[in-house]
Amino acid sequence: MFKEYIISHRDEMIKDLEKMIKIPSKLEGYDNPEYPFGKNVDEALNEFLKIAESLGFKTKNIDKKCGYVEFGEGEELVGIIGHLDVVPEGEGWTYPPFELTIKDDILYGRGTTDDKGPVIASLYAMKAVMENAKVHKRVRLIVGLNEENDWKCIKYYKEHEELPSIGFSPDADFPCIYAEKALLTVYTEKEYSENDKVRIKEIDCKNNRINVVPKYCSVKLEVNNQIAEELKKILINKVSENISFTKNDNNFYIEVRGVQAHSAHPELGKNAVARMVMILNEIFNRFEIEEKTIKTLANKIQTETNGESLGIKHINKELGDLTLNLARLELKDGSIKSGMNLRIPGDLELKEIKEKIAESLKEINPKFSGEKEALYIPKENELVQTLCKIYNEYTGEEREPIAIGGATYARAFKNCVSFGAIKPDEPDMCHQVDEYISMKNLLDACNIYAIAIYELAK
Protein backbone atom coordinates (compact mmCIF):
# COMPACT_ATOMS: atom_id res chain seq x y z
CA MET A 1 0.00 0.00 0.00
CA PHE A 2 2.81 2.41 0.87
CA LYS A 3 5.86 0.99 -0.88
CA GLU A 4 5.71 2.96 -4.12
CA TYR A 5 5.10 6.21 -2.28
CA ILE A 6 8.10 5.65 0.01
CA ILE A 7 10.39 4.71 -2.88
CA SER A 8 9.32 7.82 -4.81
CA HIS A 9 10.25 9.98 -1.80
CA ARG A 10 13.51 8.21 -1.01
CA ASP A 11 15.76 11.07 -2.09
CA GLU A 12 13.83 13.58 0.02
CA MET A 13 14.09 11.29 3.03
CA ILE A 14 17.86 10.92 2.59
CA LYS A 15 18.33 14.69 2.24
CA ASP A 16 16.39 15.25 5.45
CA LEU A 17 18.42 12.60 7.24
CA GLU A 18 21.55 14.34 5.98
CA LYS A 19 20.38 17.61 7.57
CA MET A 20 19.93 15.85 10.90
CA ILE A 21 23.25 13.97 10.84
CA LYS A 22 25.12 17.25 10.27
CA ILE A 23 24.02 18.53 13.68
CA PRO A 24 26.30 17.17 16.47
CA SER A 25 23.45 16.90 18.95
CA LYS A 26 25.49 15.69 21.92
CA LEU A 27 24.58 16.73 25.45
CA GLU A 28 26.42 19.94 26.37
CA GLY A 29 25.32 20.13 30.00
CA TYR A 30 22.31 21.44 31.89
CA ASP A 31 23.59 24.87 32.91
CA ASN A 32 22.16 27.04 30.12
CA PRO A 33 18.43 27.72 30.67
CA GLU A 34 18.09 28.91 27.08
CA TYR A 35 19.27 25.54 25.78
CA PRO A 36 18.34 22.85 28.34
CA PHE A 37 20.58 20.20 26.75
CA GLY A 38 22.89 22.41 24.68
CA LYS A 39 22.69 24.63 21.60
CA ASN A 40 23.29 21.81 19.09
CA VAL A 41 20.57 19.65 20.62
CA ASP A 42 18.20 22.60 20.41
CA GLU A 43 19.15 23.09 16.75
CA ALA A 44 18.39 19.43 16.05
CA LEU A 45 14.88 19.80 17.47
CA ASN A 46 14.22 22.99 15.49
CA GLU A 47 15.51 21.46 12.26
CA PHE A 48 13.41 18.34 12.71
CA LEU A 49 10.23 20.32 13.40
CA LYS A 50 10.99 22.50 10.37
CA ILE A 51 11.26 19.37 8.19
CA ALA A 52 7.99 18.03 9.62
CA GLU A 53 6.17 21.31 8.99
CA SER A 54 7.34 21.30 5.37
CA LEU A 55 5.76 17.84 5.03
CA GLY A 56 2.42 19.16 6.27
CA PHE A 57 2.40 17.99 9.89
CA LYS A 58 1.25 19.77 12.99
CA THR A 59 4.27 20.33 15.26
CA LYS A 60 5.04 21.52 18.78
CA ASN A 61 8.26 22.55 20.51
CA ILE A 62 7.69 21.75 24.18
CA ASP A 63 9.77 24.36 25.99
CA LYS A 64 12.92 23.20 24.19
CA LYS A 65 12.86 19.98 26.25
CA CYS A 66 11.27 17.81 23.55
CA GLY A 67 8.78 18.07 20.70
CA TYR A 68 6.22 16.25 18.62
CA VAL A 69 4.80 15.86 15.12
CA GLU A 70 1.16 14.84 14.62
CA PHE A 71 -1.52 14.08 12.06
CA GLY A 72 -5.03 12.60 12.09
CA GLU A 73 -8.17 13.11 14.14
CA GLY A 74 -9.89 11.22 16.90
CA GLU A 75 -9.94 10.69 20.64
CA GLU A 76 -7.25 8.05 20.80
CA LEU A 77 -3.54 8.83 20.41
CA VAL A 78 -1.02 6.43 18.83
CA GLY A 79 2.52 7.24 19.87
CA ILE A 80 5.89 6.78 18.19
CA ILE A 81 8.71 7.72 20.55
CA GLY A 82 12.27 8.35 19.38
CA HIS A 83 15.17 10.69 20.11
CA LEU A 84 17.41 13.20 18.35
CA ASP A 85 20.39 13.30 20.74
CA VAL A 86 23.47 11.18 20.08
CA VAL A 87 26.48 9.91 21.99
CA PRO A 88 29.90 11.47 21.25
CA GLU A 89 31.53 10.27 18.08
CA GLY A 90 34.67 8.76 19.58
CA GLU A 91 37.92 8.34 17.65
CA GLY A 92 38.89 6.31 14.60
CA TRP A 93 36.09 6.99 12.12
CA THR A 94 36.66 6.12 8.48
CA TYR A 95 34.19 8.82 7.45
CA PRO A 96 33.30 12.17 9.05
CA PRO A 97 30.86 11.27 11.87
CA PHE A 98 28.70 14.36 11.42
CA GLU A 99 28.33 14.16 7.68
CA LEU A 100 26.12 11.63 5.93
CA THR A 101 28.42 9.51 3.76
CA ILE A 102 26.82 7.07 1.31
CA LYS A 103 29.01 4.32 -0.07
CA ASP A 104 27.78 1.11 -1.69
CA ASP A 105 24.25 1.90 -0.45
CA ILE A 106 25.45 2.14 3.15
CA LEU A 107 24.69 5.34 5.07
CA TYR A 108 27.43 6.28 7.57
CA GLY A 109 27.16 8.89 10.31
CA ARG A 110 26.52 9.31 14.02
CA GLY A 111 22.80 8.75 14.53
CA THR A 112 22.05 6.80 11.37
CA THR A 113 20.99 3.85 13.54
CA ASP A 114 20.55 5.50 16.95
CA ASP A 115 18.15 7.17 16.48
CA LYS A 116 17.95 9.80 13.74
CA GLY A 117 17.67 7.29 10.89
CA PRO A 118 14.71 5.42 12.42
CA VAL A 119 13.07 8.71 13.45
CA ILE A 120 13.27 10.08 9.90
CA ALA A 121 11.96 6.71 8.62
CA SER A 122 9.04 7.03 11.06
CA LEU A 123 8.34 10.58 9.89
CA TYR A 124 8.14 9.51 6.25
CA ALA A 125 6.07 6.48 7.23
CA MET A 126 3.57 8.88 8.81
CA LYS A 127 3.61 10.94 5.63
CA ALA A 128 2.94 7.82 3.53
CA VAL A 129 -0.07 6.93 5.70
CA MET A 130 -1.36 10.50 5.80
CA GLU A 131 -1.27 10.74 1.99
CA ASN A 132 -2.51 7.25 1.11
CA ALA A 133 -4.89 5.94 3.79
CA LYS A 134 -7.62 7.00 6.20
CA VAL A 135 -7.13 6.55 9.92
CA HIS A 136 -9.46 7.26 12.82
CA LYS A 137 -6.93 8.08 15.50
CA ARG A 138 -4.29 10.74 15.94
CA VAL A 139 -0.69 9.66 15.33
CA ARG A 140 2.07 11.51 17.19
CA LEU A 141 5.82 11.16 16.76
CA ILE A 142 7.39 12.31 20.04
CA VAL A 143 11.08 13.22 19.89
CA GLY A 144 13.21 13.37 23.02
CA LEU A 145 16.53 15.18 23.40
CA ASN A 146 18.13 13.55 26.45
CA GLU A 147 17.69 9.82 25.87
CA GLU A 148 21.40 9.02 25.99
CA ASN A 149 21.68 10.43 29.50
CA ASP A 150 18.98 11.14 32.08
CA TRP A 151 15.67 11.06 30.17
CA LYS A 152 14.81 14.50 31.56
CA CYS A 153 13.11 15.24 28.24
CA ILE A 154 10.61 12.41 28.34
CA LYS A 155 9.88 13.05 32.01
CA TYR A 156 9.03 16.64 31.08
CA TYR A 157 6.80 15.45 28.23
CA LYS A 158 4.85 13.15 30.54
CA GLU A 159 4.31 15.98 33.02
CA HIS A 160 2.97 18.42 30.40
CA GLU A 161 1.47 16.56 27.45
CA GLU A 162 -1.06 13.90 26.50
CA LEU A 163 0.09 10.31 26.84
CA PRO A 164 -0.42 7.85 23.97
CA SER A 165 -2.70 4.88 24.63
CA ILE A 166 -0.61 2.58 22.43
CA GLY A 167 2.60 2.86 20.48
CA PHE A 168 6.17 1.84 19.76
CA SER A 169 9.73 3.16 19.92
CA PRO A 170 11.85 2.82 16.74
CA ASP A 171 15.06 2.55 18.77
CA ALA A 172 16.00 -1.11 19.04
CA ASP A 173 15.49 -4.30 17.02
CA PHE A 174 13.01 -6.09 14.83
CA PRO A 175 10.83 -8.12 14.94
CA CYS A 176 9.63 -6.66 18.29
CA ILE A 177 10.92 -6.25 21.84
CA TYR A 178 8.83 -7.67 24.67
CA ALA A 179 11.42 -7.28 27.45
CA GLU A 180 14.15 -4.77 28.28
CA LYS A 181 16.64 -5.16 31.11
CA ALA A 182 16.70 -2.93 34.16
CA LEU A 183 19.47 -0.31 34.30
CA LEU A 184 21.69 0.56 37.22
CA THR A 185 24.71 2.85 37.38
CA VAL A 186 27.23 2.53 40.20
CA TYR A 187 29.73 5.25 41.10
CA THR A 188 32.59 4.75 43.55
CA GLU A 189 34.95 7.22 45.22
CA LYS A 190 37.86 6.49 47.54
CA GLU A 191 40.69 8.71 48.73
CA TYR A 192 43.92 7.93 46.87
CA SER A 193 46.75 6.97 49.22
CA GLU A 194 50.05 7.98 47.66
CA ASN A 195 53.23 5.95 48.19
CA ASP A 196 56.96 6.46 47.57
CA LYS A 197 57.25 3.84 44.80
CA VAL A 198 54.64 4.31 42.06
CA ARG A 199 52.26 7.27 42.13
CA ILE A 200 49.31 7.84 39.83
CA LYS A 201 49.44 11.44 38.59
CA GLU A 202 46.77 11.46 35.86
CA ILE A 203 44.01 9.19 34.50
CA ASP A 204 42.24 10.01 31.24
CA CYS A 205 39.47 8.02 29.59
CA LYS A 206 38.23 10.93 27.42
CA ASN A 207 35.21 11.59 29.67
CA ASN A 208 33.64 8.41 28.33
CA ARG A 209 29.84 8.14 28.61
CA ILE A 210 28.54 5.68 31.17
CA ASN A 211 26.54 3.78 28.52
CA VAL A 212 29.52 3.30 26.19
CA VAL A 213 32.29 0.70 26.39
CA PRO A 214 35.43 2.90 26.66
CA LYS A 215 37.89 2.65 23.78
CA TYR A 216 40.70 4.68 25.39
CA CYS A 217 42.42 5.04 28.74
CA SER A 218 45.78 6.58 29.61
CA VAL A 219 47.64 6.88 32.90
CA LYS A 220 50.65 8.94 33.95
CA LEU A 221 52.78 7.32 36.66
CA GLU A 222 55.57 8.94 38.64
CA VAL A 223 58.09 6.25 39.61
CA ASN A 224 60.91 5.97 42.12
CA ASN A 225 64.32 5.69 40.41
CA GLN A 226 65.09 2.42 42.16
CA ILE A 227 62.24 0.54 40.48
CA ALA A 228 62.04 2.38 37.15
CA GLU A 229 63.98 -0.27 35.20
CA GLU A 230 61.94 -3.11 36.66
CA LEU A 231 58.70 -1.34 35.81
CA LYS A 232 59.97 -0.77 32.29
CA LYS A 233 60.53 -4.52 31.88
CA ILE A 234 56.99 -5.24 33.10
CA LEU A 235 55.50 -2.80 30.60
CA ILE A 236 57.64 -4.04 27.71
CA ASN A 237 55.98 -7.42 28.20
CA LYS A 238 52.58 -5.73 28.01
CA VAL A 239 53.20 -3.87 24.77
CA SER A 240 50.89 -4.91 21.94
CA GLU A 241 48.87 -3.38 19.15
CA ASN A 242 46.52 -1.93 21.78
CA ILE A 243 48.90 -1.21 24.69
CA SER A 244 51.84 1.20 24.58
CA PHE A 245 53.99 3.21 26.95
CA THR A 246 56.62 5.92 26.90
CA LYS A 247 59.14 7.00 29.56
CA ASN A 248 60.26 10.55 30.26
CA ASP A 249 62.63 10.90 33.20
CA ASN A 250 60.73 9.40 36.15
CA ASN A 251 57.34 9.50 34.40
CA PHE A 252 55.73 6.58 32.60
CA TYR A 253 52.80 7.20 30.23
CA ILE A 254 50.67 4.11 29.56
CA GLU A 255 47.98 4.04 26.85
CA VAL A 256 45.38 1.35 26.30
CA ARG A 257 43.12 1.35 23.25
CA GLY A 258 40.00 -0.77 22.97
CA VAL A 259 36.87 -1.01 20.85
CA GLN A 260 33.84 1.18 21.52
CA ALA A 261 30.41 -0.46 21.82
CA HIS A 262 27.02 0.07 23.44
CA SER A 263 26.96 -0.70 27.16
CA ALA A 264 24.02 -3.01 26.48
CA HIS A 265 26.41 -5.24 24.50
CA PRO A 266 29.77 -5.00 26.30
CA GLU A 267 30.88 -8.25 24.71
CA LEU A 268 30.99 -6.46 21.34
CA GLY A 269 33.64 -4.02 22.59
CA LYS A 270 37.06 -4.17 24.17
CA ASN A 271 37.11 -2.23 27.41
CA ALA A 272 40.21 0.00 27.63
CA VAL A 273 39.48 1.07 31.22
CA ALA A 274 39.08 -2.50 32.44
CA ARG A 275 42.35 -3.49 30.80
CA MET A 276 44.14 -0.50 32.34
CA VAL A 277 42.85 -1.46 35.80
CA MET A 278 44.28 -4.95 35.38
CA ILE A 279 47.67 -3.54 34.31
CA LEU A 280 47.81 -1.13 37.25
CA ASN A 281 46.81 -3.86 39.68
CA GLU A 282 49.60 -6.09 38.41
CA ILE A 283 52.11 -3.25 38.85
CA PHE A 284 50.90 -2.45 42.35
CA ASN A 285 50.94 -6.09 43.39
CA ARG A 286 54.50 -6.48 42.07
CA PHE A 287 55.74 -3.58 44.20
CA GLU A 288 53.53 -4.40 47.20
CA ILE A 289 51.45 -1.25 46.92
CA GLU A 290 47.98 -1.20 48.49
CA GLU A 291 45.53 0.86 46.42
CA LYS A 292 41.93 0.06 47.35
CA THR A 293 40.07 1.22 44.23
CA ILE A 294 42.38 -0.43 41.71
CA LYS A 295 42.59 -3.64 43.73
CA THR A 296 38.83 -3.86 44.30
CA LEU A 297 37.95 -3.13 40.68
CA ALA A 298 40.54 -5.60 39.41
CA ASN A 299 39.05 -8.32 41.59
CA LYS A 300 35.48 -7.48 40.58
CA ILE A 301 35.79 -7.10 36.79
CA GLN A 302 37.68 -10.26 36.00
CA THR A 303 35.46 -11.13 33.04
CA GLU A 304 34.75 -7.48 32.09
CA THR A 305 31.21 -8.11 30.84
CA ASN A 306 29.24 -9.95 33.52
CA GLY A 307 28.47 -9.65 37.19
CA GLU A 308 29.74 -12.98 38.51
CA SER A 309 32.68 -11.36 40.32
CA LEU A 310 30.24 -9.00 42.04
CA GLY A 311 28.65 -12.04 43.63
CA ILE A 312 25.84 -12.24 41.08
CA LYS A 313 25.68 -15.42 39.07
CA HIS A 314 22.81 -15.40 36.64
CA ILE A 315 22.01 -17.16 33.39
CA ASN A 316 18.75 -16.65 31.53
CA LYS A 317 18.69 -17.72 27.89
CA GLU A 318 15.45 -15.87 27.24
CA LEU A 319 15.82 -12.58 29.12
CA GLY A 320 19.62 -12.46 28.82
CA ASP A 321 22.46 -12.33 31.34
CA LEU A 322 23.34 -9.58 33.75
CA THR A 323 26.10 -7.48 32.14
CA LEU A 324 28.61 -5.00 33.48
CA ASN A 325 30.50 -2.15 31.78
CA LEU A 326 33.28 -0.35 33.66
CA ALA A 327 32.92 2.95 31.82
CA ARG A 328 34.86 5.56 33.80
CA LEU A 329 37.99 5.96 35.88
CA GLU A 330 39.49 9.24 37.08
CA LEU A 331 41.80 10.80 39.64
CA LYS A 332 40.19 13.98 40.91
CA ASP A 333 40.35 16.02 44.11
CA GLY A 334 42.64 13.48 45.72
CA SER A 335 40.31 10.54 45.11
CA ILE A 336 40.05 7.76 42.54
CA LYS A 337 36.54 7.61 41.13
CA SER A 338 34.91 4.99 38.93
CA GLY A 339 31.61 4.50 37.15
CA MET A 340 30.03 1.29 35.90
CA ASN A 341 26.78 0.50 34.13
CA LEU A 342 24.81 -2.72 34.70
CA ARG A 343 22.01 -4.21 32.61
CA ILE A 344 19.85 -6.50 34.73
CA PRO A 345 17.28 -9.05 33.46
CA GLY A 346 13.73 -8.56 34.67
CA ASP A 347 13.66 -11.80 36.63
CA LEU A 348 16.16 -10.37 39.12
CA GLU A 349 15.16 -8.03 41.93
CA LEU A 350 16.93 -4.67 41.76
CA LYS A 351 16.91 -4.37 45.53
CA GLU A 352 18.79 -7.65 45.96
CA ILE A 353 21.30 -6.72 43.23
CA LYS A 354 22.02 -3.40 44.94
CA GLU A 355 22.55 -5.15 48.26
CA LYS A 356 25.07 -7.55 46.72
CA ILE A 357 26.93 -4.73 44.97
CA ALA A 358 26.98 -2.64 48.13
CA GLU A 359 28.59 -5.53 49.98
CA SER A 360 30.98 -6.44 47.16
CA LEU A 361 32.27 -2.87 46.66
CA LYS A 362 31.92 -1.62 50.24
CA GLU A 363 35.62 -0.70 50.53
CA ILE A 364 35.31 1.91 47.75
CA ASN A 365 31.98 3.49 48.79
CA PRO A 366 29.50 2.61 46.02
CA LYS A 367 26.62 4.96 45.27
CA PHE A 368 23.70 4.13 42.96
CA SER A 369 22.26 6.27 40.19
CA GLY A 370 20.44 6.05 36.84
CA GLU A 371 18.10 3.33 38.05
CA LYS A 372 15.42 2.17 35.61
CA GLU A 373 13.11 -0.77 36.20
CA ALA A 374 12.92 -3.54 33.62
CA LEU A 375 10.22 -3.63 30.96
CA TYR A 376 8.29 -6.85 30.53
CA ILE A 377 5.20 -7.38 28.38
CA PRO A 378 4.05 -10.96 27.75
CA LYS A 379 4.76 -12.31 24.29
CA GLU A 380 1.05 -13.03 23.96
CA ASN A 381 0.19 -9.34 24.30
CA GLU A 382 -1.85 -8.08 21.34
CA LEU A 383 0.50 -5.21 20.53
CA VAL A 384 3.53 -7.50 20.58
CA GLN A 385 1.80 -10.04 18.39
CA THR A 386 0.51 -7.40 15.94
CA LEU A 387 3.93 -5.80 15.41
CA CYS A 388 5.66 -9.16 15.11
CA LYS A 389 3.12 -10.25 12.51
CA ILE A 390 3.62 -7.04 10.51
CA TYR A 391 7.38 -7.58 10.42
CA ASN A 392 7.12 -11.28 9.51
CA GLU A 393 4.56 -10.73 6.77
CA TYR A 394 6.63 -7.92 5.24
CA THR A 395 9.90 -9.88 5.28
CA GLY A 396 8.59 -13.42 4.80
CA GLU A 397 10.39 -14.46 7.98
CA GLU A 398 9.09 -16.30 11.04
CA ARG A 399 10.60 -14.45 13.98
CA GLU A 400 9.60 -14.46 17.64
CA PRO A 401 9.63 -11.42 19.95
CA ILE A 402 12.96 -10.89 21.69
CA ALA A 403 14.45 -9.43 24.89
CA ILE A 404 17.28 -6.85 24.83
CA GLY A 405 19.76 -5.23 27.19
CA GLY A 406 19.16 -1.70 25.92
CA ALA A 407 16.76 0.81 27.41
CA THR A 408 14.31 2.63 25.16
CA TYR A 409 11.52 5.12 25.68
CA ALA A 410 9.07 2.23 25.40
CA ARG A 411 9.42 1.63 29.12
CA ALA A 412 8.32 5.22 29.82
CA PHE A 413 4.76 4.59 28.53
CA LYS A 414 2.09 1.99 29.11
CA ASN A 415 1.23 -0.34 26.23
CA CYS A 416 4.37 0.57 24.30
CA VAL A 417 7.20 -1.63 23.01
CA SER A 418 10.37 -1.21 20.97
CA PHE A 419 10.10 -2.02 17.28
CA GLY A 420 13.13 -1.93 14.95
CA ALA A 421 15.01 -0.63 13.15
CA ILE A 422 17.88 -3.13 13.43
CA LYS A 423 17.05 -6.39 11.70
CA PRO A 424 17.81 -9.82 13.13
CA ASP A 425 21.33 -11.02 12.29
CA GLU A 426 22.40 -7.47 11.41
CA PRO A 427 25.26 -5.91 13.43
CA ASP A 428 24.21 -3.48 16.13
CA MET A 429 26.13 -0.28 15.30
CA CYS A 430 24.64 1.85 18.10
CA HIS A 431 27.35 3.90 19.88
CA GLN A 432 30.05 2.35 17.69
CA VAL A 433 32.61 4.00 15.45
CA ASP A 434 31.47 4.12 11.79
CA GLU A 435 27.82 3.80 12.81
CA TYR A 436 25.70 3.01 9.76
CA ILE A 437 22.43 1.78 8.36
CA SER A 438 21.98 0.28 4.90
CA MET A 439 19.72 1.97 2.38
CA LYS A 440 17.64 -1.20 2.13
CA ASN A 441 17.16 -1.45 5.88
CA LEU A 442 16.17 2.21 6.15
CA LEU A 443 13.56 1.84 3.39
CA ASP A 444 12.32 -1.46 4.80
CA ALA A 445 11.95 0.15 8.23
CA CYS A 446 9.99 3.02 6.69
CA ASN A 447 7.61 0.58 4.99
CA ILE A 448 7.20 -1.55 8.12
CA TYR A 449 6.51 1.53 10.23
CA ALA A 450 3.92 2.76 7.75
CA ILE A 451 2.06 -0.55 7.93
CA ALA A 452 2.28 -0.52 11.73
CA ILE A 453 0.98 3.05 11.95
CA TYR A 454 -1.96 2.18 9.70
CA GLU A 455 -2.79 -1.00 11.64
CA LEU A 456 -2.68 0.75 15.03
CA ALA A 457 -4.60 3.84 13.88
CA LYS A 458 -7.11 2.54 11.36
How would you briefly describe this protein structure?
The protein is 31% helix and 27% strand.
Word description of this protein:
It contains 11 helices and 24 strands. By secondary structure, the protein is an alpha+beta fold. The strands form 7 sheets. The chain has a 6-stranded mixed sheet, sandwiched between helices. Strand 17 and strand 18 (335-344) form a beta hairpin. Helix 2 (10-21) packs antiparallel against helix 4 (116-132). The radius of gyration is 24 Å and the shape is elongated.
Topology readout:
Layout: H1 3-8, H2 10-21, H3 39-54, E1 58-62, E2 66-71, E3 77-83, E4 101-103, E5 106-108, H4 116-132, E6 138-144, H5 152-160, E7 166-169, E8 172-173, E9 177-180, E10 182-191, E11 198-204, E12 212-213, E13 216-223, H6 225-236, E14 243-248, E15 251-257, E16 261-262, H7 272-286, H8 292-300, E17 323-332, E18 335-344, H9 350-360, E19 367-372, E20 375-376, H10 382-395, E21 402-404, E22 416-418, E23 421-422, E24 436-438, H11 439-457
Parallel strand pairs: 3-6, 3-7, 7-22, 8-23, 9-21
Antiparallel strand pairs: 1-2, 2-6, 4-5, 5-24, 9-20, 10-18, 10-19, 11-13, 12-16, 13-15, 14-15, 17-18
